[in-house]
Amino acid sequence: MTIRIANKNDISEIMEIVDKAKSYMKENKINQWTDDYPNEDVFLTDLKENRLYIAEIDKKIVGMAVLVLDGDEDYNNIDGKWLFDGKYGVIHRIAVNPDYKSQNVAKNLLDFFENKLINLGYNSIRVDTHKDNQSMLRFIEKNGFQKCGIVYIRKTDERIAFEKLLK
Questions:
Q1: SS3 sequence, 61-84?
Q2: Which tens digit of pLDDT belongs to each residue from 107-150?
Q3: Are the C-beta atoms of residues 20 and 63 closer than 8 Å to each other?
Q4: CB 25 within 8 A of CB 133
Q5: Among candidates 70, 127, 95, which has minimal Cα distance to 6?
Q6: Which of 13, 26, 6 is closest to 100 using CA atoms?
Q7: CA-CA distance, 77 to 79, in Å (whole number)?
Q8: CA dist 72 to 2, 3, 124, 125, 145, Å?
Q9: Model's pTM, two decimal places?
Q10: Around 88, how many Cα atoms within 13 Å sit in the side-chain half-sphere?
């Protein structure tokens, strides 16, 4: 598996994965991603910011995620307490092609991000998810994140916030 920064040529494959993730969430009554969010414009912005990454197997995009290095304004107000008060990275918009769910795609993305953050001198990584997104909650907890409280994304969307200290 190869992980690299995405480019404009990857957008159509990324959007296919995102559309599958939206369908999964809709079928499972997870009110996290909607018909209009995240959309292609969101990912084009991520591309411009050099924070959209893809995982490939045999040149096929099998997963994607965003790594934000300059914090997240929505994380400034938490109903709870973060583990660390310094510089942190944030994972957003992680999705895996359902045909590759058993191949540790999300874990490889997470490991890549953790190593990148450690090399850049960061001390923690944060992520949030919807309370009904059981597969993401299992992934987060299985990979050493600790629940820190509740944050509100775009001021209204309640999410469970997690943080993991990096070694």
A1: EEEEEEEECCCCHHHCCCEECCCC
A2: 999 999 999 999 999 999 999 999 999 999 999 999 999 999 99
A3: no
A4: yes
A5: 95
A6: 13
A7: 7
A8: 27, 23, 13, 11, 17
A9: 0.93
A10: 21
